[in-house]
TrEMBL record:
This is L-ornithine N(5)-monooxygenase [NAD(P)H]. GO terms for molecular function: oxidoreductase activity. Its EC number is 1.14.13.196. InterPro entries: FAD/NAD-bd_sf, Lys/Orn_oxygenase. It comes from Dactylellina haptotyla (strain CBS 200.50) (Nematode-trapping fungus). Pathway: Siderophore biosynthesis. It is an enzyme of class 1 (oxidoreductase). Its cofactor is FAD. GO terms for biological process: intracellular iron ion homeostasis.
Length: 486
């Protein structure tokens, strides 16, 4: 299934109605919303570009036993349409596990199962996704001698080959990029960000019985999961969790607080003055950031207690938590070990210590700013190109300066709008509803097909390549090529 017949080769000068950059949960929810909100006869021409070779949800952190942090009812469809075929419950029914899942008595599936659910959804859109393709730039275009930008040229790389495609609308849904503490280099064989934990740690530490020295940095859910998992996988290793604060603290998912993740809370938050929004983000930070699910905190505490029981002297302890610690320096000893300079504060006394490790795992979170690089050529279309953020409306559409972009073209941002749309923006909480809002804003399903807004009836508009004019001029991207899917 899928909503565009892509089996035939694509003409080189076609224009997509929409290209979505990244095919994670945000874009997958959009694929589903398009399929369910727009009748087949009026389906727009859409393409999803994903740099991974297949749909996989945070593959580096699909740790055994790790659970979802959200009710399965907030899946990719239910809150928009509980009768959708893409609900988690329908997935369970199709996989013949509905009753067994009910017997588990939980709202929180394993992350492994939720990934399988999303892969099941994604498999239904194989004909409109190009995997293994990394988008590098989005360039505004004035096609057909228009007086304002009316298309976007999406540049990408697939297996070393450059691709370019035209689209009326672009959704940027690329997730976060790993954040590392300042003193650390962006790559070192002995330093691994939590997002690459599963793929890189087995290469770095090949002996499961090795007496390695391992540091885990951070006090959030990723750090706690990694600390617990790595110490179980390497029982003879000395594993230390370094945290800046006092202690691991639990995430607040209590019911009144959890209302900030209701779709209706997005409207309220968006209408709130910017200063007040910032204060609310700080007030509710412990719902999501630098916090750990209580169940896991209790498990870690239990493991530390058992060591204390067995060796009151502490000499043989394999697990340690060092609080009030921050990395201030780094030394590259060899490709087998590194040394970290750490600032400690103990009972008000500051000290600096140097520790050597065979592996440092940094679970220090993510930055959600990759759209800025991709959209750099479009920045001059903003009414104030010097602003730090790309301003977006409630419908997630970038607000370019008056008269700069045609009404039937635009760029939408997903997952990087926490400051305007609230803490749910980076999460799964509102995806089903948000995808519907984006589809509504782009395709206005009621007017599709009447030609008034420039959307096609399932066929790409043909634009002679020579009429395409690069907005940013003179950079040689005027000839547009597109080989369709790969
Ligand atoms: C380990 C972990 C567990 C989580 N668990 C939960 C949870 O239980 N509940 C919850 O609500 N939230 C959770 N989150 C938050 C998470 O952000 C969301 O679950 C969700 O992944 C957001 O979806 P997304 O599509 O916006 O971003 P992502 O899932 O990050 O997807 C972005 C996609 O874009 C692709 N991409 C990036 N750059 C490019 C490019 N230039 N060209 C092409 N493709 C590109 C990436 O490969 C990726 O597939 C978790 C986060 C992590 C790190
Ligand atoms: N099973 C799951 O569902 C699951 C698993 C993992 C992650 N997630 C989700 O993924 C998102 C990100 O979580 P995360 O744990 O990766 O990141 P996070 O919540 O942003 O936590 C980052 C941690 O790194 C610390 N840190 C940041 N910079 C540092 C520095 N320079 N030096 C030392 N410490 C530093 C922070 O310290 P401070 O506390 O001092 O600021 C914080 O404790 C969240 O939404 C989370 O819920 C979900």
């Amino acid at each position: 299934m899928g909503y565009y017949n892509s089996s035939s080769p694509q003409p080189s000068d076609e224009v997509y109605d929409l290209i979505c950059i990244g095919f994670g949960p945000s874009s997958l929810a959009i694929a589903i919303a398009i399929q369910e909100m727009i009748p087949e006869s009026r389906r727009p021409k859409v393409l999803f570009l994903e740099r991974q070779q297949q749909f996989i949800w945070h593959s580096g952190m699909l740790l055994p036993g790790s659970k979802m942090q959200i009710s399965f009812i907030k899946d990719l469809a239910t809150l928009r349409d509980p009768r959708s075929e893409f609900t988690f419950l329908n997935y369970l029914k199709e996989k013949n596990r509905l009753l067994d899942f009910i017997n588990l008595g939980t709202f929180l599936p394993l992350r492994e199962e939720y990934n399988d659910y999303m892969q099941w959804c994604a498999s239904k859109f194989d004909d409109v996704v190009s995997y293994g393709e990394t988008v590098t730039l989005v360039e505004p275009i004035k096609a057909n001698s228009a007086d304002r930008v009316n298309q976007f040229l999406v540049h990408s790389k697939v297996g070393g080959i450059e691709e370019r495609r035209l689209a009326k609308h672009v959704v940027v849904a690329v997730g976060g990029r790993p954040l590392l503490p300042k003193p650390l280099p962006s790559y070192h064989p002995r330093i691994v960000h939590s997002s690459q934990y599963s793929s890189r740690v087995p290469q770095a530490l090949s002996d499961a019985n090795g007496a390695y020295r391992i540091a885990v940095i951070g006090a959030g859910q990723s750090a706690a999961e990694v600390f617990s998992d790595v110490s179980a996988k390497y029982p003879n290793a000395n594993t230390t969790l370094f945290i800046r604060g006092d202690a691991l603290k639990p995430s607040d998912d209590s019911p009144f607080v959890n209302e900030i993740f209701n779709p209706s809370a997005t409207d309220k938050f968006f209408r709130t003055p910017a200063e007040e929004r910032q204060a609310q983000l700080v007030e509710n930070r412990a719902t999501n950031y630098s916090v750990v699910r209580l169940e896991l905190i209790e498990r870690i505490y239990h493991d530390l207690y058992v060591q204390r029981l067995r060796d009151p002297s502490g000499k043989s302890w394999k697990l340690n938590i060092q609080n009030h610690s921050e990395i201030t320096g780094f030394n590259d000893i060899s490709d087998k070990s590194v040394s970290l300079r750490m600032a400690h504060r103990d009972n008000g006394v500051d000290s600096v210590q140097t520790h050597e490790f065979d592996l440092v795992i940094v679970a220090t979170g993510y930055a959600r700013d990759m759209h800025k690089e991709l959209l750099a050529p479009a920045k001059e279309l903003l009414s104030d190109p010097e602003v730090e953020r790309f301003p977006v409306g409630r419908d997630y559409r970038v607000q370019f300066g008056e008269g700069k972009v045609s009404a039937d073209a635009g760029v939408y941002l997903q997952g990087c709008n926490e400051t305007t749309h609230g803490l749910s923006d980076t999460l799964l909480s509102v995806l089903a509803v948000r995808a519907g809002e984006v589809v509504d804003s782009i395709f206005k399903p009621t007017s599709i097909g009447n030609g008034a807004n420039g959307h096609s009836n399932g066929h790409a508009a043909k634009v002679p390549a020579k009429k395409v004019e690069s907005y940013s001029n003179g950079n040689g991207h005027n000839g547009v090529t597109s080989n369709g899917y790969h």
